[in-house]
Specification:
By secondary structure, the protein is of the alpha/beta class. The chain contains 10 helices and 10 strands. It starts with 11 loop residues before the first helix and ends in a 6-residue tail after the last strand.
Length: 222
């Protein structure tokens, strides 16, 4: 894992969260059972022992020349995705670069809105329920908008620390852990608070091969 200034461990004290409650990795048996349940919901699961392997598996999923976009994700940062894309090492068409290069606010908004329909959209998650559902939220919907239908392919990355027992636990994990950490990060990066604005729960995927979860045997992200 590439620890960054926004990794959870660097924000624990400021966010006043309980990592002992919400950042524990489950047993191997619990992970295996969760993977089976996720796959039964039409979502492909790729296991990775560590962040370095996870990045290589992600790269293998995206053909050269593909249109890509990603939601803000500490997990993506920690596996080295942002560094790989920003160093122009990839042969992908990164829509995010066009968005940040646009000076006109309305045009930038339109580009961001359309970016949720990218060929390949990468995102972290906030919780994975043992029964197989995958949960995320964000402030504006610029991330979860791609989850439900917009993106041609959705590639999710997550540490096993996101696995919880129930939907209630998933919602509490966001309120008590992921949101406070993200709020501290947002204030430092953007100078403004975050908000729990839009939710997405993947319970079943109809399109075969559309959604892939790369599940990493590390504690990553929020």
């Amino acid at each position: 894992m590439r620890k960054t200034q926004y990794s959870a461990s660097n924000l624990f004290s400021k966010a006043q969260v309980d990592p002992e409650k919400w950042n524990q990795r489950p047993s191997a048996d619990d992970v295996a059972q969760t993977v089976e349940k996720i796959q039964q919901r039409g979502i492909t699961v790729i296991r990775a022992q560590n962040s370095e392997i996870a990045l290589e598996k992600l790269k293998d999923l995206i053909p050269p020349g593909s249109e890509i976009m990603n939601g803000t994700s500490t997990t993506l940062l920690e596996i080295g995705y942002d560094e790989y894309v920003n160093n122009n090492t990839s042969q992908w068409n990164d829509l995010h670069k066009g968005i940040i290069a646009e000076d006109d606010e309305k045009k930038r908004y339109d580009l961001r809105r359309k970016s949720v329909t990218a060929d390949y959209f990468m995102s972290g998650v906030n919780a994975i329920i043992r029964s197989g559902e995958i949960v995320a939220c964000d402030k504006s919907g610029s991330r979860v908008g791609a989850w439900l239908y917009g993106a041609g392919h959705l590639i999710l990355v997550s540490g096993t620390n996101k696995i919880v027992k129930t939907l209630g636990d998933a919602l509490r994990r966001v309120h008590e852990y992921a949101y406070p950490l993200e709020n501290v990060r947002a204030k430092r990066v953007y100078g403004t608070s975050s908000k729990i604005g839009k939710w997405a729960i993947l319970a079943h995927e109809e399109t075969e091969g559309r959604v892939t979860l790369i599940l990493i045997d590390e504690s990553l992200g929020y």
